[in-house]
Amino acid sequence: MSTTATTLFDKVWDAHVVRKIQDGPDVFFIDRHFIHEVTSPVAFLGLEGRGLSVMFPDKTFATADHNTPTINQHLPVKDPLSANQLKALEQNAAKYGISHWGLGNPKNGIVHVVGPENGITLPGMTIVCGDSHTSTHGAFGAIAFGIGTSEVEMVLSSQCIMQPKPQKMRIVVNGTLNKGVLPKDVVLYIISKLTAAGATGYFVEYAGDVFENMSMEGRMTVCNMSIEMGARGGMIAPDETTFNYIKGKDKAPKGDMWDKCLAYWKTLKTDEGATFDKEYMYDAADIEPMITYGTNPGMGIGITQAIPTADQVDSGKATYEKALGYMGFHEAEPMLGKKIDYVFIGSCTNGRIEDFRAFASIVKGRKKADNVTAWIVPGSHVVEQQIKDEGILDILTEAGFELRQPGCSACLAMNDDKIPAGKYAVSTSNRNFEGRQGPGARTLLASPLVAAAAAVTGVVTDPRELIS
């Protein structure tokens, strides 16, 4: 028996290799496959063109999210492209016997929200979806990553994929987080240190006190953003927090099977002495509420800091000036006090109940700023109901906010929720690329607390000033 110390990543990866190709990728088995309306239609056309079926329809789960409206979901979808894609997903799911949660289904919501909340996402699994933020599911000790349309077709037809094994990185954050610092701030801080390409070619394991003390919602936020530093994905070793979150969920193991799974899940951790290709360590005390000022998630700073000068960043001067020009910002300017126009809370990054609790903790007893348009979008109908049951909706309504229906919303401007050109949006989503939230839109990525502080003041505000 081998006594070699092994990483969590290696344990899960190696257990799923069907065949190794010499000097090539691994043939890799997939436990769970999530699909949505945007990347799946062409994959299904490919199946039909080759006369193939879906090998294991019970391992694929479909939900509508990217193109869905977040108001009046009971009405026909106006945009013809979106309507066609949603209809195609429904028809393909029915044709091949795939579980489908479309508009109006009480289990509908963002794919990376509904998977975990229904117990579909489990430790030790391999999980893929035609969406880059599939890394979210790594919070459960799973290997999860996004795939392209041709790979979606490959998984549908064979339940396998061909993948080169990434290198391994460990990021350790120890200590106690300061007041007002949320998991979103932790990951934005890490990305600001590593840059948006700093983990390219790696699969990241997050370790240390900070992640061990995080809720599952917080861990999902961190793993969700792994892709924003170039990583193939991110993962956190499962523990009692993980097991307690999963237990009793609809698709989770039950009875004797639960006990067998739990025994296996408890082995899913990096052995002492296991080595990584690269490691980074950070101190929780150094992290404050974060905000981005540029056009990639690595262009972030602590909210009390000034925008760096060109000679303080690694990108070329011309590239840096272009980013600041797009944003309408200048070197050495403070971010505090900058006027904003929109606030968006939601997405697969921050559309869970914990995020709305944080948002409500700031807006309670205050009023929405007159100059701000706010889109408050739960990640699923389950989250929407929790918001109502916990009295959060009452707090939001009293403060002048309206709750929208579940969907990806303003994260990526593939629906009606688009930020107008030139307008500033404090967004709890994951990307601030040029045009990401609408042509010409200017996005400032932040946590739910920072978003809430901006929503009630109308400007970029340190949320610690509003925390009682």
Number of helical stretches of at least 4 residues = 16
Compute the number of strand runs: 18
* Helix percentage range: 25-40%
Which sheet architecture does the biggest sheet show?
5 strands, parallel
Name the quaternary structure.
single chain
Alpha-beta classification: alpha/beta
Overall pLDDT level: 96
Measured by DSSP, the beta-strand proportion falls in 15-25%
- The parts where pLDDT drops under 50 for at least 5 residues are none
Radius of gyration: 21 Å
Q: What overall form do the CA principal axes indicate?
A: globular
Distance between the termini: 57 Å
User: What is the strand arrangement across the widest sheet?
Assistant: 5-4-3-6-7
What can you see in these coordinates?
- The chain is α/β, with parallel strands linked by helices.
- The protein is built from 16 helices and 18 strands.
- A hairpin with a 7-residue loop joins strand 13 and strand 14.
- Helix 2 packs across helix 5.
- The longest helix is centred in the N-terminal third of the chain and has 17 residues, at 80-96.
- The termini are far apart.
- The relative contact order is 0.13.
- The mean pLDDT is 96.
Descriptive terms for the model:
alpha/beta, 16 helices, 16% strand, four-stranded parallel sheet, 468 residues, five-stranded parallel sheet, single chain
Short structural description:
The chain is an alpha/beta fold. The chain is built from 16 helices and 18 strands. The radius of gyration is 21 Å and the shape is globular.
